[in-house]
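Amino Acid Chain and Its Fold in Token Form
===========================================
Purpose: to set a sequence beside its fold so the mapping can be learned.
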Amino acid sequence: MTEDKKRLRLSDLQRGKEQERGIACRRCGCRHFRVVYTRQATGGRILRRRECRHCGKRISTYESQN
């Protein structure tokens, strides 16, 4: 490898971008939820009913078991 060529790393690509992970409330934008209840869904998935700690809006999330 020559001096003028630099190896590109994944961290170099992500440095300029702010990647937001997780879920956010559609009403207020808050990222803090509490789990109201959890149950088994169809297809071996898990259904979690979550509630925003700020405004109280509820959302459903599905998780797959690997």
Notes: The chain has one helix and three strands. The chain has a mean pLDDT of 83. The first helix runs from residue 10 to 14.
